[in-house]
Amino acid sequence: MELERKFEIDDVFGKKMKLNEAENGAIGKAAFTHYLQSNDLDKQLFKNEAVKFYKEYSEIVHGEKFSWEVAEEAVQYSLFGNEATFAEPEGNTQFRFIDLFAGIGGFRLAMQSLGGKCVFSSEWDEQAKKTYFANFGEVPFGDITKEETKQFIPDGFEVLCAGFPCQAFSIAGRRGGFEDTRGTLFFDVAEIIKRKKPKAFFLENVKGLRNHDKGRTLATILNVLRQDLGYYVPEPQIMNARDFGVPQNRERIFIVGFRSDLGIDHFEYPEPLDKVVAFEDVKEVEPVSVKYFLSTQYLKTLKEHKNRHLSKGNGFGYEIIPDDGTANAVVCGGMGRERNLVYDDRLEDFTPVTHIKGEVNREGIRKMTPREWARLQGFPDEFLIPVADASAYKQFGNSVAVPAIRATAKEIIDKLLIYANRK
Fold it and tell me: What EC number(s) would the UniProt record show (predicted)?
């Protein structure tokens, strides 16, 4: 019997594959793709769900009936090819890590480039999963707050990575310990650290976490990591993507920790690079579609909105980034694009290709493209964008800046290697 050798995006996420709508189908896809990329140490963790998924996949997509034994043999010998752009090469693994709140894989790109092997990923957003799968050949597991997801996390990995969302904690009148974080996503991160005891963790969050709830939220987080979980956690640091080779002013808080028995009691975050970059370094080389250029009506609305705020002494409103300038932080929502408009005088055909009010503006003002946003976040041009623009902007806006993550991760791994050499 000839078996399919490739796992195409349309087969996994297209209309033919109805399992996407069911929780067991989502788990099956994740387990199957994790199985194909796991080593012998972790394969048994994913095997049963992988085989079950393969049987259902074959019957739904191809109309073939497979016995459990045949499906098990097919999965066991990994007959599906992995042609993902950033699929991990065999061998040369320096450390193992897990990718929580994975988004589109910014942490994974950074860690893999340092010799890391991802042994588990999770992400709840279905569109982000498409992008993750297209680039890494792996479907992340879903909701990490559910025990049925956590049961697939292997033992023995060295580093936990998580760009977890910030939520308020109810700590009034209490000490702000582990139990006080229940009901927040940080609690699930902390619980996994407590269960699996990785050698290190690397957490990322918005800059505002430092002052959230007058500093009490961060204090609670640090208390849990240091006192309850027993990790050495140096003072968190605000890191700017601009300092690590991308022309974007994006500040985020990084929190690093090491298991106390390692004897690591000192850590220095990486110093900014001595490298000047500007938007022109990431600007599209070829002329872009007219769809990215603003309509006269939209531009008029933006100008009126900005003028109203200026009259009140506020600095809100759209912004045009010059070619020799630095972009504002790319974030979700309209303002993420409106505060990162650019000039581009290369458009020759002003015929609209979308339904817009008014004509295309003749001032050469356009939005940045998703590829430009990808470059601002440090993603290589080989990184595939298989989703519509609206989803792409959201995904890159939510992502970590890869170069800043990589620079910090290198310091973490160097510390772990020093510890390993001491043993």
Answer: 2.1.1.37
